[in-house]
Design goal:
Blueprint (H helix, E strand, L loop, with lengths): L1 H17 L3 H5 L4 H6 L5 E13 L2 E15 L5 E7 H23 L3 H21 L1 H8 L6 E5 L25 E4 L19 E6 L12 H5 L11 H11 L4 E3 L6 H5 L6 E6 L1 E3 L21 H5 L3 E4 L15 E3 H4 L9 E5 L6 E3 L5 E3 H8 L3 E5 L5 H16 L4 H13 L7 H4 L2 E5 L14
Parallel strand pairs: 1-4, 4-5, 6-7, 6-8, 8-12, 12-15
Antiparallel strand pairs: 1-2, 2-3, 9-10, 10-11, 13-14, 15-16
């Protein structure tokens, strides 16, 4: 045991040197330390997915959800949310229906899209009902205006802004909402940033005339040549560059995986294009499914290889690059993004992943945190190209005025909610924000000297 302890100490010391935020992640955080980092109008909600004891032994068949609530003042509170099974099924139905909805709209199958939207709405209603014992705790007064949510288990995939407050309104209509992996993250040291570092907008809008060359095992699991061209992607990228004139725009043939991997702590990285998520394939009945190509690799590596950002190599538009153009979460977590103010993945389902109990979501969200990004922004499901463009345009417009990151996203979502064409929560609630909710340095929006 002593040898093992010494080995653990050595590994932790090595990791602390390599990853600055690792030391704070293993250091116990006191309630007072977390409370001191909250603003007077903020509330931390930390969910817990746990198993009830059966003869003093946790029984995984008796899982439940509960939540801690902590504000800047007042006592630590606890809310029991009941058995986990019904909540998990509602989340699964919500995400599956949202995915079906977006796919049906892309195929112009209006009846199927309407049916999927109804299923998603029913699942959201169930979730709102199940979480009502918690929601009622902070919606009765007016002192709370901002929520910091630390989900657990399947709740990692819930867009909390779309839940009902029990009075006929969405939570986003009352609160700005941001996510954290765990409450203890609030007590950790702030990551140093460098607003003078370059800002990068990477544009990889979809399939062109060329076909990609055969690539790695990961490349065989993600068939990028089947991805349609995103006609609004260039408009989004150009609009962002107007708001951040000092940003470098990497366009077609330039927004390569090789180029992204060569970046060193950019002040901001915004990637516009396609993203792919695997993991739902039935590899026993259909072993030829693309995602099953990853079944033989290490489980920890596999789960972080199930989502990929599609870049120029995957479309055969990057001469001289040795990469396959599929930047997986496993690779993203190794990038030098320490202190980067924000990573925005304007791609479908890049906030999705494999949820776990106590470990967050295995996917791009987790990879961004490991890489050292202060704020991560991405959608849970695919939304229309024009809708995404409108949301991102308003998001950056609000950021440029000095508004906080979470509140800027809230304003962008409210704009869509109040538009009759995008009033469905499936249109506006997909994009979520994890990490630092505070304003960006205004120097990022300054004119070049």
């Amino acid at each position: 045991m002593e040898v093992l302890k010494q080995r653990i100490d050595t590994l932790e010391a090595d990791l602390s040197r390599e990853i600055p935020q690792f030391a704070s992640s293993i250091r116990p955080a006191r309630c007072e330390d977390i409370r001191s980092q909250l603003q007077p109008d903020e509330l931390l909600i930390e969910f817990v997915d746990y198993a009830e004891l059966d003869d003093r032994v946790p029984n995984p068949r008796n899982r439940r959800y509960a939540a801690f609530l902590l504000g800047r003042s007042g006592d630590l509170r606890w809310a029991d949310l009941g058995p986990a099974g019904p909540i998990d099924r509602a989340v699964q139905d919500l995400i599956a229906a949202a995915t079906d909805w977006s796919a049906s709209l892309a195929r112009n199958e209006k009846q199927a899209a309407g049916s999927a939207e109804g299923t998603a709405r029913d699942a959201l209603r169930i979730l709102s009902d199940k979480l009502n014992p918690l929601i009622a705790r902070f919606t009765q007064g007016k002192e709370v205006q901002r929520l910091r949510v630390a989900p657990d288990g399947m709740l990692n995939l819930v867009p909390f802004g779309a839940l009902s407050d029990g009075r006929g309104h969405f939570l986003i209509e009352r609160f700005s909402i941001s996510y954290v992996s765990a409450g203890r993250d609030l007590a950790g040291p702030a990551l140093p940033g460098d607003p003078g570092s370059p800002m990068i907008i990477a544009l990889s809008p979809g399939a062109g005339a060329k076909r990609p060359a055969p690539g790695s095992l990961t490349a065989s699991a993600f068939r990028a040549e089947r991805l349609e061209r995103l006609e609004g992607a260039e408009l989004e990228a150009r609009d962002l560059q107007k708001r951040m004139p000092k940003a470098l725009l990497l366009g077609e043939g330039e927004a390569t995986e090789q180029r992204v991997k060569q970046l060193h702590h950019p002040a901001l990285l915004h990637i516009v294009g396609h993203g792919i998520v695997r993991g739902n394939e039935d590899c026993q009945s259909a072993p030829a499914n693309p995602g099953c190509q990853l079944a033989g690799i290490d489980p920890a590596a596999r789960v972080m290889s199930l989502s990929a950002i599609v870049l120029e190599e995957a479309y055969g538009r990057a001469s001289g690059s040795s990469q396959d153009g599929l930047l997986t979460a496993l690779e993203l977590q190794t990038l030098d993004l320490q202190g980067s103010e924000m990573l925005v993945l304007s791609q479908c389902r890049m906030a999705d992943g494999v949820p776990s109990s106590g470990e967050g979501v295995f996917g791009m969200r987790r990879a961004a945190a490991i890489a050292g990004v202060k704020t991560f922004v991405a959608p849970l499901w695919k939304i229309a190209d024009a809708t995404q463009q409108a949301l991102m345009g308003r998001f950056y417009q609000e950021l440029s005025t000095g508004r906080g990151r979470a509140d800027a996203l809230r304003q962008a979502q409210l704009q869509l909610l109040r538009n009759s064409r995008t009033t469905s929560f499936l249109q506006w609630a997909a994009v979520i924000l994890s990490g630092d909710p505070n304003p960006l340095p205004q120097s990022l929006f300054a004119q070049p000297q």
